[in-house]
């Protein structure tokens, strides 16, 4: 029986023929299709180099014109919280599919990252065997590993695995400044991982972050180094060997912002400590952070000045944070959302 709607969830960073095979399979088994574009509103990174709009354009250009009217593209945040993410996907699908419609979910179990396919009971799973050995990670590695001016040559061995429109888009993107910045970030991350490659076990890093609130503003930095150079973040860093989590939090806050509040003041202002441990929250490897939420109430704003790894430090009104979502490093916007409820009144398909 033909399904009313097929759902295809992916990041498409970038689009390749394996994606198109799943799209064609879905269109052959449903009257219409909803493509859910993950990692929406993430800042550009070596893992997520393209905006959701650019990815939608890549998919649209690779599809026959006759199929365009049958396909809708829907951006969805990662949330780094599976229950919230699943609810968001269901909400977006429900807004586009009539009640009682027969819905199918298309996909294949590639690895552990495909476990989300089991999170939608009630939707028929249209399983498809993996199409070839290519994946987007391989393409990105070749793309960012290319020598100066050699992008097309680096992608040549993979060219048959991608639509010509994707290759053309990758070539155009490589002419801009974002490509060079992401290439440098990719190289830094590769060296970072190589330094730990000989460890007997995959390392798990521990970090701390400080969310300091005062007069309904929060203290943020602009990162001074890769990864995420220039992006907004909470003050924080790695746990020092001889520090407690509390000591590291105070040290990082002082080093990056020169905020000289007494420890007793910060202890009195501490409202919550939450752990953020999603396996994919950091490109540097498995990184578990402990975020300390302080609220100074109506006290005067403490004087601050950028230092250490921070290129800039600033007080930002909470009312402005949602509009800055695409500027935040890794999952830092979602950490703020956890404490401050920034997306509770926002539809997932608009920032």
UniProtKB/TrEMBL annotation:
Pfam family, one: CTP_transf_like
NCBIfam families listed in its UniProt record: cyt_tran_rel
Keyword tRNA processing listed: no
Record domain Nudix hydrolase: where: 203-339
Keywords tagged on the record: Hydrolase, Nucleotidyltransferase, Transferase
CDD domains: NUDIX_NadM_like
The protein, known as: Bifunctional NMN adenylyltransferase/nudix hydrolase
Domain of life: Bacteria
GO molecular function term, any single one: hydrolase activity
PANTHER family assigned to the protein according to its UniProt record, in alphabetical order: BIFUNCTIONAL NMN ADENYLYLTRANSFERASE_NUDIX HYDROLASE, PHOSPHOPANTETHEINE ADENYLYLTRANSFERASE
């Amino acid at each position: 029986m033909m399904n009313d709607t097929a759902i295809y969830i992916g990041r498409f960073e970038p689009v390749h023929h394996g994606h198109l095979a799943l799209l064609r399979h879905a269109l052959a088994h449903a009257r219409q299709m909803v493509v859910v574009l993950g990692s929406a509103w993430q800042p550009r990174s070596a893992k997520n180099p393209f905006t959701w709009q650019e990815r939608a354009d890549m998919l649209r250009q690779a599809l026959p014109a006759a199929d365009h009217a049958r396909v809708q593209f829907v951006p969805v945040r990662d949330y780094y919280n599976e229950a919230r993410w699943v609810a968001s996907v269901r909400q977006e699908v429900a807004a586009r599919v009539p009640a009682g419609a027969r819905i199918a979910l298309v996909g294949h179990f590639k690895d552990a990252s495909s476990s989300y396919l089991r999170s939608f009971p009630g939707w028929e799973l249209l399983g498809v065997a993996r199409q070839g050995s290519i994946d987007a990670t391989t393409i990105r590695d070749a793309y960012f590993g290319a020598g100066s001016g050699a992008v097309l040559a680096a992608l040549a061995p993979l060219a048959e695995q991608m639509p010509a429109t994707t290759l053309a888009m990758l070539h155009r993107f490589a002419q801009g400044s974002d490509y060079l910045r992401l290439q440098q970030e990719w190289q830094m991350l590769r060296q970072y991982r190589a330094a730990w490659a000989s460890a007997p076990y995959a390392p798990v890093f521990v970090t701390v972050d400080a969310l300091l609130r005062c007069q309904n503003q929060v203290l943020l930095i602009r990162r001074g180094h890769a990864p995420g150079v220039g992006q907004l973040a909470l003050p924080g860093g790695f746990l020092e060997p001889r520090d407690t989590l509390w000591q590291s939090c105070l040290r990082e806050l002082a080093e990056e912002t020169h905020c000289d509040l007494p420890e007793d003041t910060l202890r009195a202002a501490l409202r919550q400590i939450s752990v953020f441990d999603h396996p994919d929250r950091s490109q540097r490897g498995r990184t578990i952070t402990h975020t300390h939420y302080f609220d100074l109430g109506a006290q005067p704003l403490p004087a601050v000045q950028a230092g250490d790894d921070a290129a800039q430090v600033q007080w930002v009104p909470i009312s402005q944070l949602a509009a800055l979502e695409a500027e935040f490093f890794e999952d830092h916007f979602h950490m703020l959302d956890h404490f401050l409820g920034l997306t509770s009144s926002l539809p997932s398909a608009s920032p």
